[in-house]
Amino acid sequence: MKKGYVFIFLTALLYSTQEIANKMLMKNHLDGFQITFIIFLMGAIILTPLAIKDLKQRQFKITGSDCGYFAINAALCIPIAMALLSFACKYTQASTSAVIFSSNAVFTVPFAYLILKEKVDKMTLISLVVSIIGVVIIFNPSKMMAGSKGGTDLLGITLALGAAIAWSLFTVISKMKIEKYGGYIFNCFVFYFGAIMVLIILLVTGRPIFSGIEKESILVLLYMGIFIKALGYIFYLGAIKMTSAVTASMVFLIKPALATVLAVAILGEKITASMLIGIGLIIVGSYINFSSKKSQQATQQVVE
């Protein structure tokens, strides 16, 4: 169990640096789709041996319908959610992008209700309302009238929110069959399909694929592909296996505060009062949601 909590902390630490790394690459004039393609291709390659091992153990054969399911999930996750998050870091602070994206767990509620027919209890609704209020405060409507700078920041926040919503839909759809495939098989195929989709976008739009990458950018890309996408996910799966899916979701409860602290320390970002209030509300909303799921899990265990 203690090892499981170590995995939770390591996952949260790695995931909290994602937007910071993105911001660094954007400052070096790399394209958002270019970043997304490279890091997910690296992640897919690293996960390949683990996926092959699982395929052999499960004696599982991938069919055309499986590929279709992977492709749908890949489209939501990579060329939409992750690419939007990359571009968000170009227009707003890394800490803002991280906090907004961390609210994705709350947006899964309506999707889970509509698609999976999951019941929504009173506490979950409260967590949804509290987190949405936090997001609105971070948006800071007064910035809409603040001229070009305010408009640019608003664009970044909007892109991060779009990434969070797309990721929420991906999370819900992935729940439908992920147990059938297992985490390594599912994510390896999703990563490959997503990387191919982004590569097509790069080729069609004439964007750079590997050109324009400087030495310092190579190190950041390697860090994102190896540590955030591959090791981060392996640690997260380890946390789930040694604790539970609900307990492992603490990662997204820790990330808003940790990502903000790291962004201030590494990038020297300034945090406004509205940002602090919004972060606080999103953490409170996430905690209410976490507590509600924890309670439901305990109830199910007693019944069983």
From TrEMBL:
Compartments in which it is found: Membrane
Q: Does the keyword Electron transport apply?
A: no
Q: Which ranges carry the EamA domain?
A: 3-139, 155-289
The record's section on Pfam families has: EamA
Q: Which InterPro entries match?
A: AA-Vitamin_Transporters, EamA_dom, EmrE-like
The protein's topology relative to the membrane is: Multi-pass membrane protein
Keyword list (alphabetical) reads:
Membrane, Transmembrane, Transmembrane helix
Give the superkingdom in one word. Bacteria
Q: Which family is this protein grouped under?
A: Belongs to the EamA transporter family.
Q: What is this protein called?
A: EamA family transporter
